[in-house]
DNA sequence: TTTCTTACA
DNA sequence: TGTAAGCA
């Protein structure tokens, strides 16, 4: 097939096709005598792929990478790239929603009083900007991609004197028990990792999706639970539309967020939850500030410097603040500490 | 006619 | 990527 045939068939311009070739995405054979390009079935397929990926906004450079990897027989990477795209789109969407809300508030202010609102508007803008900053500031400081393969083993053998994974199984089991999902309900596990919590729900026949910001973790999870739906994403931009889930759970993940980010995360969780949706947070935290100080003091006395550093490196929640948030937002809570550090907080809308 | 290359927007 | 020019 010649270039015009392909162009017509795929509804793009011949120029575009040449352009892709120039960028190294295609390499059609050129006829000896007149340099006309000849396209085989394979090239058509390739072009279709390019067009599809362009359609979802992937830049040429990225498409080249993906294509190269597919050539090497690597289908997984395409899936990953698409998931990544989706996750990025979702964070933009969440941000966009935020901006629209702020705009609405400004409009509202202007409608109400004509004068002296400039300051209020400025305040709104500042607040909006700050939210964006908080969202942007999330990054994986722990390199979960690298931990993925050994994670499960690590959890089992975490036998350091300061063992944050103590009572791991017990806590996860109890989480399932507290949520006690009914048949037909759909849940979400945020920071699902290798799927240890989500797997427990699946085992009882409950549908649950898992999100994680680490693609390697998701690969492990997928390997363990092939039937589970997983997506790339994080607490601050959950890659799902509003009102999708009956319950949201999360274990050993919430402490990777700063206090400010925790607030946003809770709002995000509420967004993807149905109106009666419940939340269960199983994580390392302190009952309150007092307990935290006490705990650190104790470690100091015992000379457990590593443990102190570990605690300071994470953002273990202040449980009392968490409970306050739930109360303010109309939830009834139930909580329990499995050990000094490990707590479960379960919240149901009243 | 059709495609190609090159240059420029 | 679109448009245009000059060629084969």
From TrEMBL:
GO terms for biological process: methylation. Residues 1-69 form the HTH merR-type domain. InterPro entries: DNA-bd_dom_put_sf (IPR009061), MerR-type_HTH_dom (IPR000551), MerR_fam (IPR047057), Methyltransf_11 (IPR013216), SAM-dependent_MTases_sf (IPR029063). Keywords: DNA-binding, Methyltransferase, Repressor, Transcription, Transcription regulation, Transferase. GO terms for molecular function: methyltransferase activity. It holds the Pfam family MerR_1. This is Methyltransferase domain-containing protein. It comes from Effusibacillus consociatus.
């Amino acid at each position: 097939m010649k270039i015009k045939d392909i162009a017509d068939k795929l509804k793009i311009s011949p120029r575009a096709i040449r352009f892709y070739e120039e960028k190294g995405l295609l390499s059609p054979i050129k006829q000896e005598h007149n340099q006309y390009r000849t396209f085989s079935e394979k090239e058509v397929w390739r072009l279709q792929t390019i067009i599809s990926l362009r359609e979802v906004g992937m830049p040429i450079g990225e498409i080249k990478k993906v294509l190269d990897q597919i050539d090497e027989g690597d289908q997984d990477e395409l899936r990953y790239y698409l998931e990544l795209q989706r996750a990025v789109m979702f964070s933009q969407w969440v941000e966009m929603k935020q901006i629209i809300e702020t705009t609405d508030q400004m409009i509202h202010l202007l409608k109400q009083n004509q004068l002296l609102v400039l300051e209020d508007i400025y305040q709104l803008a500042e607040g909006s900007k700050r939210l964006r900053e908080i969202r942007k500031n999330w990054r994986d400081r722990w390199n979960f991609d690298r931990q993925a393969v050994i994670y499960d083993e690590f959890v089992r053998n975490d036998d350091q004197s300061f063992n944050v994974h103590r009572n791991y199984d017990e806590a996860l089991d109890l989480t399932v028990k507290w949520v006690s999902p009914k048949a037909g309900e759909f849940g979400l596990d945020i920071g699902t990792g290798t799927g240890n919590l989500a797997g427990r729900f699946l085992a009882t026949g409950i549908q649950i999706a898992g999100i994680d910001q680490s693609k390697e973790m998701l690969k492990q999870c997928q390997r363990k639970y092939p039937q589970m739906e997983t997506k790339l994403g994080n607490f601050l931009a959950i890659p799902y539309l509003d009102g999708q889930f009956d319950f949201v759970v999360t274990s050993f993940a919430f402490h990777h967020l700063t206090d400010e980010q925790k607030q946003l995360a809770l709002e995000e969780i509420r967004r993807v939850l149905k109106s009666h949706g419940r939340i269960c947070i199983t994580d390392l935290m302190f009952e309150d500030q007092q307990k935290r100080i006490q705990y650190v003091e104790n470690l100091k006395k015992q000379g457990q410097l590593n443990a102190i550093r570990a605690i300071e490196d994470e953002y273990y929640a202040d449980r009392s603040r968490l409970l306050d948030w739930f109360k303010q937002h109309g939830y009834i809570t139930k909580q329990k500490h499995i050990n000094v550090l490990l707590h479960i907080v379960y919240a149901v809308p009243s």
